[in-house]
Amino acid sequence: ALAAARRAGYLYVNLKPDNIYQAESGSFRIGDLGFIPLASVQYASLPEKYRSRYTAPEVADALSALSDTMDIYAMGLILYQLYNNCALPEEADADGLFPTPLYADYELAHIITKACAADPAQRWQDPAQMGQALVDYMQRNGVNNTPIIPEPVVFDEPKDEIETFLTEEENDEEFAQVL
After folding, report:
1. CA–CA dist 24, 42 (Å, integer)
2. Cα dihedral sign for 13, 88, 154, 157?
3. pTM score
4. Distance (Å, rounded) from C-alpha 116 to C-alpha 111?
5. 79 Cβ neighbours under 8 A, 6+ residues apart
6. 44 near 67, Cβ under 8 Å?
7. Tens digit of pLDDT for each residue in 77-117?
8. How far apart are CA 102 and CA 109, in angstroms?
């Protein structure tokens, strides 16, 4: 969807999990369409109501110009969260990169962390490039619909056991033996 918007000459500026919907067919769609023409990006800023944890760092305040790769950054963070047990990264390292997501192998981690690099020049420059990298990864690795996280451990129900308590006298005797 981001690549299609880019081909049409638009940047999606409000990408976050709340704006991704699953159709009955199982495919995903983006909604709350916050498009801006690419030709206007250098002259536009992001209103406060569109800022979220998924907003690229270079668009930190209302006076910052938009970035051509801010939608890629948001997609990178969404993928990071999916492959990191639903947790967003805390901090980037000195190079502006996040640690490897918990459930991503080195190849997928590279794709994701490149997308959400702090420096826009280090990110994928076009959503189609990132999309192709993901398709290539899936083809090489035979990716399917198997969950990426371990199955939850199910514990047996506690057994009904009769608990025995020491009487006050027995408790006093046991305490005296400890002394």
Report:
1. 38
2. negative
3. 0.76
4. 9
5. 101, 111, 112, 115
6. no
7. 999 999 999 999 888 777 777 889 999 999 999 999 999 99
8. 9
Quote the percentage of the chain above a pLDDT of 70: 80
Contacts 24+ apart (CB under 8 A), 44-49: 46/13
The two tokens of residue 1 are: 């969807």
Amino acid at 92: A
The sign of the dihedral angle between the CA atoms of 127, 129, 133, 136 is positive
CB 31 within 8 A of CB 17: no
Burial class (CB in 10 A: 0-12, 13-18, 19+), 58: middle
Give the dihedral of Cα atoms 4, 6, 12, 15; nearest 10 deg: 60
Cβ-contact 117, 80 below 8 angstroms:
no
Give me the amino acid identity at 33.
L
Phi, psi values for residue 147, rounded to 5°: -55, 145
Task: Look up tokens 């991503």; give the residue.
Answer: 104
Which helix (H) or strand (E) element contains residue 148?
A: none
- Give the chain's end-to-end CA distance (angstroms, integer): 74
Give the three-class secondary structure for 35: strand
